[in-house]
Amino acid sequence: MIDMALYDRIKIMKEVEGLSQREIARNLGISRNTVSKYLKQKEPPTLAVRQRSYGKKEYSEETQRILPVIDQWLLEDQKHWVKQKHTAARVYQRLVEEYSFKGSASNIRKLVARRRQKQKEVFIPLEFQLGLQFQFDWGEADVILSGRTQRIFLFCLQLSSSRLRFVRAYAHQKQEAFLDGFVHAFEFLGGVPVEGLLDNLKTAVEKILEGRHRLEQEAFIALQAHYGFKATFANPRRGNEKGRIEGTVGYVRRNALVPFPDVQSLDELNDYLVDWCQKEAKHVRVPHTDETVAQVWAREKLTLHPLPETPFEACQLVSCQVNQLSLIHVETNQYSVPCVYVGQAVWVKKFVDHLVIVAQDQVIAEYPRSYERNQLFTRLDHYLEVLLKKPRAIRDALPFQNPQIPEVFRRFHRKMREAEGADGDRKFIRLLLLHRDLGMDPLSEAMTEAERRQSFTYEAVYEIIQQVIGNVTRPVGQAPEALQGYKVKVTDINQYRQLVRGANE
Prior knowledge:
Layout: H1 4-15, H2 21-28, H3 32-39, H4 47-55, H5 61-77, H6 88-99, H7 105-119, E1 133-145, E2 148-159, E3 165-170, H8 175-189, E4 195-198, E5 205-208, E6 214-216, H9 218-227, E7 230-233, H10 243-255, E8 262-263, H11 266-283, H12 293-300, E9 316-321, E10 327-330, E11 333-336, E12 345-350, E13 354-359, E14 362-368, E15 376-377, H13 384-389, H14 407-420, H15 422-433, H16 435-438, H17 440-452, H18 458-468, H19 494-504
Parallel strand pairs: 1-4, 1-8, 4-7, 11-15
Antiparallel strand pairs: 1-2, 2-3, 5-6, 9-12, 10-11, 12-13, 13-14
Helix pairs in contact: 2-3, 5-7, 6-7, 11-12, 14-15, 17-18
């Protein structure tokens, strides 16, 4: 390597002082060959010259032997997870074990660094057409929900052209949340872009095929057909292909959720996130322009495909068997259905916040979605038909102990049972059937009034209902009150047989 100070000194001694090469060598204590080499330099050994000379460094035969091996390993690493690639130490260890390498570990560290620098991928700046593409990804964040710190999942969608963001929080990343996020995102946008770019999520992709081809989940295909967009998928472990949204996830977490929002429900949090997205669009500028996101978005919105007349039914559909307790299992929880469906298969539509149970194209029950484990949810109405046949079971029936059942029902039943025994149970159940026409609150008010009058009978409650509402349909099998005292004699069929026999003779 040429020393810049030595080069300068030799040049001055030769050209200014007029010394010979021998004299210069003697005065500086160096060889005449060194003096000759420096004097032959046509330009000073600047940094640029020295860098060019380093780049031409020749490797030893031992190093040249293993260069193709190192390059191949580093090339394969580019296809793998960033956290699970060769380190320089691991490269050296494998070379020693598998190729009997004799060089030093320090040289391999320098060599690996240089080869990685050469293999770095070059990216192309992109500019997307208005209305062409959106990008999607999931993120995570902590919030204070109902007084407790809880990890939530962020559905993040961004338009590639205007950079408009949409963010919505969920308690999980299941398929129903994935689908529901798109429904709300497209409603927020007021239209649908041509295509979407996303990762190979299990909620969207059933199997990765060759190249860009994917076997997609049926529900995700249905979503695309409903809204008229085409999904494209990034290569595995290539987050840079959807660089717009990769930065959005962290940006939202740092800017919208620091400090932790303190909310009582996810609905409250989502209202806040929508408001935050709208405010951000008004002051954040689109890169390399003088326009805000909102200004570009105003033009991009006009290019989107219109929304369909009805939103997509964002649910996961599962089949369940109704057991002998008139219950179905959904995940770890159990839910009651009308007892007439015992032994049958029913369909459950699992939405993010509620369940809809369907049989024979009819909705037979709906429940709020519970994410607790091993819970039991029953409704008294589902068991009334079987209680008509087993009236004594009403006192201990679990659905009758439900806290949602007004306490006046249990007090009224005890009085009817004390007065009429088993017949009081049967009449009370017929009384409960009235709620299907009235609703629970009016029936509760009628019982409360009857209790105030100390009239614990079916007839007393029915009379109060007629006075307040009128025209109430009686349960099946219940005769009108005015006719309940009449007895009809059963016809003797033998009389008809005698008539028929006489006519034939």
